[in-house]
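User: Teach me something about this protein's shape.
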Amino acid sequence: MRIKKFVGKNFKEALEMVKKELGADAIILSSRTIKTGPLGLLKKETVEVTAALDETADEGPFRQETAVDGSFTLSEDILREIRSLREEISFLKETLRPVVPTLRISRDKKGLYNMLIKRGVDAQFAMVLLEKSGETVGSLLSAIKQEVRVKRLIPSEERGYMFFGPPGIGKTTTMSKVAHMLSTPGRQVTLVSLDSQRISSVAYMKELSRQLKCEIKFVKGVSELPKIIYKESDRGPVLVDTPGNDYGQILKQTKEVFSTGFPLNKCFLMDASMDLQSTIRLWQNASPYAIDTVGFTRLDLATHYGNLYNLSMLTGRPLSFLTDGPNVPGDIRIPTPDYVAGLIAGGVCEN
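Assistant: First, the predicted structure itself:
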């Protein structure tokens, strides 16, 4: 391999010198701007380009020599090391390709990829989306809308929901908002609470029952639910609130008591402002128990909404309720694919 430095007035001139002497197969190793001129006088800027030409195909054994013109060749040992390094770099690129997805992204889509990552979409899910979209934000929105599943709410047909989730996630508040949505003429909403130990929860549920003029029942365990649900769901939707301190155990008991199938929708609520790993840990405790839908609370506190897409893909469950504030009966939305896509790609939660 022959390596030589060329100095020109600018990069273009230096590059022409490289092509003229080393040919079109030469490789540019580096370039830099240097200043030349007598000491004390104004120095002129020039460009120094270091180029190389692999002459191994035409030469025999290599020797390290310095020519009169300043160019030099490398010994066979050094060349062998260079070739080995090249092979290792190529191997590393192929090995890292699945781990670093940006290596597979075209230049035209890198902007969209960076936008999705900034908005909280998992890197692998972002790659899947980009493979299904074009190079515009509009095509990305269309891809998200096709991927995200949502559950429509038809009050006249709903049998009810049982809400699960960790403590403080907003189950009782969400249930009260849903209760207002499902309270329609001719259909009686029934409220059921397994959280009868907390005085604040009992008082809140009683006030909700008064506002909606509906029945409320407090039960001590899941075993008491079948009689209530099968009786009251014929008259209208039944909404069941659960304590958050042991939701995994309650889910397990629900599966055991309703061995032939649970008649209501089981909705698992998560905090939209939590990070992905935290939400995954929560979901792992719930996933073995046939959750029907996933809802998100506190959209107003989230800085991005990529987790809506991440969890939709990870859980395979449709999104149901999205809440963005404490107001009852407001601050709740039944998601549509357009709305969810706008949240994820647009990053704005509109009331």
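Now, about its shape. The CA atoms of residues 36 and 43 lie 5 Å apart. The first helix runs from residue 11 to 22. If you'd like, I can walk through any region in more detail.
User: That's plenty for now, thanks!
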